[in-house]
């Protein structure tokens, strides 16, 4: 068998298991509408939760001072445009941390976790954490302990059972003094607890208040990937930790600017020392090109809009956060009332289907009736827990949501789900 037929065979198996993925032609109109494969549909799978990506003010500001497409260099060489520094200062203020560090994507910002852990470290990772966190765990030499989803008691058990003697104690066989990557002079194992803020596929929030207290008790570093809660939740829209009153217990915040901020790129916020350390150690910061300044300028403008909370859309002024929360409630209540099994509590609304084939049929039938949402399947979620993942935004209006609920109801009945 040559490699091409091996690949074809694997793809055939994926198709057989209803796990095949294919690309579609998607032309975004705004966060609530798109033309997909030539047909205009209500978009329910954008991460542009506040509708800022198509905002004219953001676009105009981003291109106003544009003199090049990209810096074509890494940050430590010639890529450190002042717009990135200005953005980092604003993101640090936004997160109430000493400093922030911008990465080209949120995925790469998550891989910073790998730089924080050495072979003596233990990472405690929520079982539903995003692939970018899982990849960070795979990239480093730390021991990985997976705790049950959002289960604080299970996390405590793992923290307690792994209270081992320090690796540098005489009884320990491993030595930290010989490896270049080890934490010299450090006498205890570093423990890092990592969780998402709003879980991307389940739409629930991490119990950051309790997890934060536990981390203090066990002297563990708490890292939160708040890609989906940042710029939305909390009184000042600083994210899930603010919403939970747990900001002071979070040591490192990781986030994406390609979701509620409607822009592109990722960032890490933390202490001065943490950021200096990442500048010197984080391979996804060092060995790649800088985020183009264009995106930094867009993010600066979008951040200002997040603070003000108001945009103009189709001639009307919209309070984006209020609209997003209201739309979330309308869609969740209506779908639950129809009898669908929903997970979570946020603007990410997973409608549980179960079987992969039924989920694909469901998504195809939604599309036939003008609603575009994805069937999320294994390996993104566990086998047999396929779901239609809806993400509502501030730009959806009542008529759109009513149409979505009517179509869901019709398809749900046709497939004997409700
Ligand atoms: C929880 C979570 N973390 C990180 C990322 C990666 O962010 P980005 O799209 O900016 O690379 C995603 C993207 O979907 C995500 O859902």
Written overview of the protein:
The chain is of the alpha/beta class and 418 residues long. The chain folds into two domains: 21-54 and 311-415, Alpha-Beta Complex (Aspartate Aminotransferase, domain 1), CATH 3.90.1150.10; 70-159 and 188-291, Aspartate Aminotransferase, domain 2 (3-Layer(aba) Sandwich). 39% of the residues lie in helices and 18% in strands. The chain is built from 16 helices and 16 strands. It has helices spanning 3-16, 56-64, 75-79, 82-95, 106-110, 112-116, 131-139, 152-161, 208-217, 240-243, 272-281, 283-286, 293-308, 320-338, 356-368, 398-414; strands at residues 26-30, 33-36, 39-43, 99-103, 122-126, 143-147, 191-196, 221-225, 252-256, 266-270, 310-313, 316-319, 348-354, 371-372, 374-376, 386-391. It is globular and about 60 Å long. The chain starts with a helix and ends with a helix. Mean pLDDT is 94; it is low at 165-187. The site of pyridoxal-5'-phosphate has 14 residues, from helix 5. Residues 105-107, 110, 130, 132, 196, 200, 225, 227-228, 256, 258, 266 line the site of pyridoxal-5'-phosphate (PLP).
């Amino acid at each position: 068998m040559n490699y091409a037929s091996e690949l074809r065979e694997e793809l055939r198996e994926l198709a057989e298991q209803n796990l095949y993925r294919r690309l579609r032609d998607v032309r975004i109109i705004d966060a609530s509408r798109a033309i997909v494969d030539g047909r205009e549909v209500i978009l329910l799978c954008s991460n542009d939760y506040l509708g800022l990506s198509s905002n004219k003010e953001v676009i105009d500001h981003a291109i106003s001072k544009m003199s090049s497409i990209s810096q074509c260099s890494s940050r430590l060489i010639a890529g450190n445009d002042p717009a990135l520094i200005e953005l980092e200062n604003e993101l640090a203020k936004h997160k109430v941390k000493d400093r922030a560090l911008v990465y080209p994507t949120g995925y790469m910002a998550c891989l910073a976790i790998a730089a924080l852990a050495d072979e003596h470290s233990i990472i405690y990772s929520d079982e539903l954490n995003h692939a970018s966190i899982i990849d960070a765990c795979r990239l480093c030499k730390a021991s990985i302990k997976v705790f049950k989803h959002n289960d604080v008691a299970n996390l405590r058990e793992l923290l307690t059972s792994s209270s081992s003697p320090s690796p540098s104690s005489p009884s320990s066989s491993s030595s930290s003094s010989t490896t270049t990557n080890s934490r010299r002079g450090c006498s205890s194992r570093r423990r890092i607890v990592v969780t998402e803020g709003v879980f991307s596929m389940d739409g629930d929030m991490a119990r950051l208040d309790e997890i934060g207290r536990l981390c203090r008790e066990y002297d563990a570093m708490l890292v939160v990937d708040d890609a989906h809660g940042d710029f939305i939740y909390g009184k000042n829209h600083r994210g899930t930790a603010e919403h939970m009153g747990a900001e002071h217990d979070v040591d490192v915040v990781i986030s994406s600017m390609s979701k509620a901020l409607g822009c592109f790129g990722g960032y890490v916020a933390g202490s001065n020392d943490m950021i200096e350390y990442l500048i010197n150690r984080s391979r996804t910061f060092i060995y790649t090109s800088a985020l183009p300044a264009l995106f930094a300028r867009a993010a600066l403008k979008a951040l200002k809009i997040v603070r003000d909370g108001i945009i103009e859309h189709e001639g009307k002024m919209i309070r984006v956060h209020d609209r997003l929360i209201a739309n979330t409630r309308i869609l969740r209540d209506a779908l639950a009332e129809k009898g669908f099994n929903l997970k979570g509590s946020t603007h990410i609304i997973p409608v549980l289907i179960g079987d992969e084939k039924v989920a694909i049929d469901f998504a195809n039938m939604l599309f036939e009736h003008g609603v575009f949402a994805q069937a999320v399947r294994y390996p993104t979620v566990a086998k047999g827990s396929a779901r239609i993942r809806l993400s509502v935004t501030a730009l959806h209006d009542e008529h759109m949501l009513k149409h979505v609920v009517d179509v869901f109801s019709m398809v749900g009945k046709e497939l004997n789900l409700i």
